[in-house]
Specification:
The complex is a heterodimer of chains A (261) and B (201). With 261 residues, chain A is of the alpha+beta class. In chain A, the strands form 2 sheets. A 4-stranded antiparallel sheet of chain A has the order 1-2-3-6, covered by helices on one side. In chain A, helix 5 packs across helix 9. In chain B, helix 2 crosses helix 3. Classes of the chains: A alpha+beta (261), B mainly alpha (201). Chain A: One of its GO terms (cellular component) is plasma membrane. Chain A: It is found in: Cell membrane; Membrane.
Chain lengths: 261, 201
């Protein structure tokens, strides 16, 4: 298929958008696209059509490990520089925030706090009137702090993990670092609770249980949480179901109990 | 949480409340600036559907997760080059996911038993243990309805190519028609779907 005849090229638009061409034909169409505006338009519309087919597929819940891997990879993977032409074509509404290149220069992950603050401030300004959106961004910052901590635990010299079944269904994995005094619990298949209940985390030692924060199960049952407070060597981590807002000490039997060593 | 509800809707879930396309554009812009929290949000928002599509093509769960990881790493790396004028974020992501899944299907073809009938029989998705959101159900019904407007051959060809990951020559073999006919049917079928689903650029 080395013909560059317009008709035969146009005829391939459907197969191209559906990724049904051979590698050679794919390259030929890609080369031709640069020359034909009408075909560019047709392919763009067909790609959008194809993506609608993709979006209609039943979702599948990814494992917790996939996200953990990705967040770890992302923390150390550089991004491509933006294409100048498309950057300048962007409607940049954040006029008072640092320029893209300034921010790019700061975007090494270990310099994140400053950058995040600028980005979050700009985003809040962008969506005045959207209370819900502002909350999302605050949640996102809290989540990022959690994610960074989880990555740190996984990257620690004395990283350890232990898996247990959850009473009532599901699995939980505790990852921890005594050196960092920190742990996180990753859970799959956790039941959703009614709104007047919450899951509560506990660090448990000979002296008793101290609260390490509360959390809700995500809609899909996969969730994770870095525990508040400090892990001491040998602490047991437990999860109980408590009245919403949490309790000062556990009032029910734990559904998860796992001991660090 | 603050409740500023004028309609009788539940704003508990902030992400669902925004237009998904607008939300995704906002997230991509922040990801392009190196914002890992935005990446995490986008992942939560769209990863199950990406994994759904990839799994549809590859079937093997661990391979599908691998491909999904590649897709999201590519999103992270290339976000600074995303041009919103060239299409929606979701189109960009699903295009990457489909292409990578198809590449993986082709690469592992030798070791994979390709039941040529599966692609046709399998258009109706198996319902996994994940509850479908209303949004997805609406999109599913839209696609299903549009599909009924195609000729039998168009529908089979498009379904085999998109959901089965078959090349047009494989589709020609399966349906026992010339390759040229398949190309034409794929194009005609996609044009019909485009018009039925109201896609216009």
């Amino acid at each position: 298929m080395s013909s560059t005849d317009d008709n035969s090229m146009n005829n391939m638009a459907g197969a191209f958008a559906l990724d049904a061409l051979s590698a050679e034909e794919r390259s030929a169409v890609e080369a031709h696209l640069g020359e034909s505006e009408s075909m560019q338009k047709e392919v763009a519309e067909m790609r959008e059509t194809a993506s609608l087919l993709g979006r209609a597929v039943t979702p599948v819940e990814p494992s917790v490990a996939l996200k953990l891997n990705l967040m770890t990879l992302v923390a150390s993977t550089p991004q491509l520089p933006g294409a100048l032409a498309s950057v300048s074509a962007l409607p940049r509404e954040k006029s008072s925030s640092p320029t893209t290149s300034e921010r790019k220069a700061q975007s090494r992950w270990f310099l994140r706090p400053v950058t995040i603050f600028a980005a979050a401030a700009a985003s809040v300004a962008l969506v005045i009137g959207g209370v819900a959106v502002a909350n999302t961004i605050i949640d996102a910052d809290a989540k990022l702090a959690q994610t960074n901590q989880l990555v740190a635990i996984n990257a620690s010299n004395d990283f350890q993990q232990a898996s247990v079944d959850v009473k009532g269904g599901g699995h939980a994995k505790l990852v921890w670092s005594v050196e960092l005094g920190s742990s996180a619990l990753l859970m799959d298949g956790l039941a959703l609770l009614p709104s007047d209940k919450t899951y509560q985390l506990w660090y448990i030692d000979a002296a008793g249980a101290r609260s390490a924060g509360t959390f809700a199960a995500a809609g899909n049952g996969s969730t994770w949480r870095v525990l508040d407070g400090t892990l001491a060597k040998g602490d047991t981590v437990g999860v109980t179901v408590e009245p919403s807002g949490g309790s000062t000490s556990p009032t029910t039997d734990p559904i998860i109990i796992v001991t660090s060593t | 949480m603050l409740r500023l509800v004028t309609r009788e809707t539940d704003v508990e879930n902030d992400l669902e409340e925004l237009s998904p396309a607008q939300l995704q554009r906002d997230l991509i812009e922040r990801i392009a600036d190196g914002d890992q929290g935005a990446f995490s949000n986008l992942y939560d928002h769209i990863a199950p559907r990406v994994l759904g599509l990839v799994t549809r093509l590859l079937r093997d769960h661990s391979q599908s997760e691998e491909v999904t990881q590649e897709v999201f790493l590519e999103i992270w790396q290339t976000a600074p080059r995303f041009d919103p004028h060239k299409g929606a974020v979701a189109t960009w992501i699903f295009t990457m996911a489909h292409r990578r899944a198809v590449d993986r299907v082709r690469a592992s073809q030798a070791s994979r038993t390709r039941d040529t009938k599966i692609g046709i029989r399998d258009y109706d998705p198996e319902y996994d243990n994940v509850a479908e959101s209303v949004e997805i159900r609406i999109e599913h019904e839209k696609v299903e309805k549009a599909m009924t407007r195609l000729t039998e051959l168009q529908r089979q060809a498009v379904t085999l190519a998109y959901y089965g990951g078959y090349s047009h020559t494989e589709v020609a073999t399966i349906l026992d028609v010339p390759v040229g006919t398949v190309k034409t049917r794929l194009r005609d079928g996609m044009i019909r779907l485009r018009d039925e689903m109201g896609v216009a650029s």
